[in-house]
Amino acid sequence: MTSTGTMSLLMRLPPELLHMIKEQIPLTDLRTHVCFYKTTPILAALYGDFLDQRLFWQRACISVGLGAPNGSASYTDWKQVAFTCIEKDGWCSHPKCGVTRLNINAREIEEMELNDLTMNGLRRSMEDVHATGPEYHPYISSLFRYLSFHYSRKQTMEEDALLDYRNGLVDDEENPANLLHEHPIAARSFAIFPVMTKALVMHEVFDSPVIITNPDGITISDVMDGIFECLNDYLSVDQLYRSIDHHDWVTSLGQLAAMDFPSALGKMQTVRQYFYYFRFNGIEFVEWYHEPDDVEPDDVEPDEEPDDIGYPCLSLETRVARITRPVGSLWNQETIAAEKG
Question: Alpha-carbon distance 32 to 47, whole Å?
Answer without folding.
Answer: 13
